[in-house]
């Protein structure tokens, strides 16, 4: 039976203009408190029908479905279903839809209509939809949904009287019927929503029509994933195909700088520091700047064009299967640049177990710091040739495989974590699709400059500092005549101790030496090996003329090189990532857990890779 003062809930997706409509209907007659037992805000207000009868309005938190992914969304569900303590089930619903994103918002509306409550749809922001070239037929939409549909512009108080009149009529005329049994099928719900939205369109601009047609392809569960993988594949091919000349030029520049210092500065400890430490170590990392910029060029173009959000939509379903929240995609995507901002971005994930899982797997995303390591080893040990006589570069294919290995590893770990230490199930999320547009050259250039500056700043600070410390540890004490300076030094002796641990997975003294300073930053592994090789050369002009890759070719087997690559797919070689994990989890328990499981994975992956390669005669 309807209460003396009807209670009406405003419900809808976030960003549908629901709160603006609530404010327009209630004005100053609002009361804000919290729901009993939770910190979720409760907004209630009063309004009147045309004949002066009062009604109570509740502004419920925005949600995408009746399957909650946060405390706010759980409150919305419980109020609608009459389960919230201190709340009665509302007498009617006003479902607020964004007219410009009708197919997305209709999914939730169809769920609500199945509850058999008196319902009116407020088709909000129709002015913005028309401005964007979309005209809708509210009567056709009403016919498809079976409930009244009232066009509104909440911020201009348009359609409010008609909306309240429709609510009053819906309450008076409502005939209870049996509610639908069980939750609706997601796929069928989305198909029905798209069909209704399409039927309600009177006219739309060619741009909107073409956007829909393109989305039908790029968001297809099969063809869309093929397109995404193809784009990633082309991106990694370009990293090698385009970066060769500029990388060679930078390498020649570093070599010329070393030669100039040797020719013009007297032999002393400072000259050795500059030549063997700073120029050899830092220079070995800087030469990979072209590869990093090419990678980010693709990322910036995909973001600016509007495609990256669609990639997130495609990956959401896969993430849900392993227990990850769809909200975790953006933090994980950010981690491809650097895990530190990616981990910080998890603050937007409301569920603590979801957030913890995303933090713990963020280091598995292949960040830009790994690229110098990958580029060095791939260029040194993987032939620069096509695959099977095709134009597909083998080096780019291996790089693509390393990125895929990181993603697959993250999904497998997430699956395990969500069933053990971070038990729970992920929830999907809805997202608004931006328009397709041509990237602005100025914005892309600015983004590349920012990435270049960040990389060079790291090279000039963290990497330079670590390289100087390593050079000192490699230089002292001085080795007796006939002994290797690297082996005799403090760093060499530490590496010899670590070598006992890593020898079973195919690692040698060079790698053992590089692993410890690389804890500061992954790129330091390259500078550490370059510095050690420069000291080992000890004025040998022929050795000094060789590139770092050429020197490694003579000292490592292919099996060792592949094991080293496998190690860096998983190893948590970044002290900044460990520090930010401690801050975001408020303690050392989870950072230590993360470091432990990642090192265990890295050790196992390197060992399996090495012994498999040896079995195939690559040792």
Task: Lay out the secondary structure.
Layout lengths: L6 E6 L5 H9 L3 E5 L6 E8 L5 E6 L11 H11 L10 E7 L3 H12 L5 E6 L1 H6 L2 E3 L1 H8 L3 E4 L7 H14 L12 H14 L1 E4 L1 H13 L4 H19 L2 H21 L4 H18 L2 H17 L1 H15 L7 H6 L4 H6 L7 H10 L9 H11 L12 H24 L23 H35 L9 H4 L1 H13 L6 H7 L8 H14 L3 H5 L2 H6 L4 H13 L4 H11 L3 H27 L4
Parallel strand pairs: 1-4, 1-5, 5-6, 6-8
Antiparallel strand pairs: 2-3, 3-4, 7-9
Protein model, in words:
- This protein is of the alpha/beta class and 619 residues long.
- Helix content is 60%, strand content 8%.
- It contains 28 helices and nine strands.
- It has helices at 18-26, 71-81, 102-113, 126-131, 138-145, 160-173, 186-199, 206-218, 223-241, 244-264, 269-286, 289-305, 307-321, 329-334, 339-344, 352-361, 371-381, 394-417, 441-475, 485-488, 490-502, 509-515, 524-537, 541-545, 548-553, 558-570, 575-585, 589-615; strands at 7-12, 30-34, 41-48, 54-59, 92-98, 119-124, 134-136, 149-152, 201-204.
- A seven-stranded mixed sheet has the order 2-3-4-1-5-6-8, with helices on both faces. It has a two-stranded antiparallel ribbon with strand order 7-9.
- Strand 3 and strand 4 (54-59) form a beta hairpin.
- The protein is elongated.
- 42% of the residues are buried.
- The mean pLDDT is 87.
